[in-house]
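Appendix C reproduces, verbatim, an entry submitted by the partner laboratory led by Prof. M.T., so that reviewers can inspect both the input and the predicted structure.
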Amino acid sequence: MAFTSREEAREAGRKGGKAPGRKLTLERVEAAFGLLVTIEDAQRRLERLGVWAACGMLAGSVAHAAVRSVEVWLKAHESVLTRDVVEGLKREVDRVKKAQRAAAEGR
């Protein structure tokens, strides 16, 4: 973009990181996104963030930070799910071993 004057360039610089559109308030954001509880919540939030960023409601840096926070939440959520599966498998292995020992002693 070419500027016709220094003032025009300065004004563009001052507006630099500000996304146009309605001001986002904490209440609007919380109402739009809700809590992150499930993976589906994370998917909905990512979709909404993409739409908001595409239409200029979020500056790029804000959109990136918000998407990153969802990525971190997903990673933590997946860690909890993995831990629960591993613990369940350990209990099952212990149960099978105990049953095998009991069967071997009963022979």
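Residues 40 and 81 are 14 Å apart (CA to CA). Additional entries are available on request from the coordinating office.
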